[in-house]
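Predict the 3D structure for this chain.
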Amino acid sequence: MKIVSNKSNLQVLHEDNHLIVVNKRVGDIVQGDKTGDKPLSEVVKEYIKEKYNKPGEVFLGVVHRLDRPTTGIVAFARTSKALSRMNELFSNRETQKTYWAVVKNKPEKSKDKLVHYLKRNEKNNTSKAHLKEVPDSKLASLEYQIIKELNNYTALEIELHTGRHHQIRAQLAAIGSPIKGDLKYGFDRSNPDGGIHLHARKLSFIHPVSKEALTIVAPTPDDVIWNAI
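Done. Predicted structure below.
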């Protein structure tokens, strides 16, 4: 995997005049929130400003988000044209998103399609997966397959069909296979870095301006378990 730039606080996976795609680390927030912590969007803006010696404010559009404890691919738009077109691609599900997850309790099936109705709880910022529709729930669908069995854990590759709040975390917990480190969804202890073993591994889409087919792959974090996979 070609890394375009790898500064200490930013790993750029793809960069052109319209898009910049980075590999998010554990703990980074994509957009500013009530914590007041510096978001990834500001780090990317500073990178662009410095690299291209741009005066004034740098335009950067947030196309999608990843949960704070999750790692992997995050795409940003560098032009308003790219932002509106990328938003369309994501809302029309014209992107292919592949995740890797490390879970305890190997799923019963080596591969399966999971369909649930997710209901979000704003108070504790979680989503609960139901097998049948309940009031205010949203349909959530994904497919997984086992890619590696480790001593105490199982690694899954996941194709996401919908983009719901905490979808992968809630759906895997619902089948009894919570993600390593994910205390919110039933794992028994946290990871030392406060993250969870969920990684946005691959993103495929048609470039919004050049129309070329792009597939971007993000290297996994450097830890014992990811390295074993």
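Residues 40-51 form the longest helix (12 residues).
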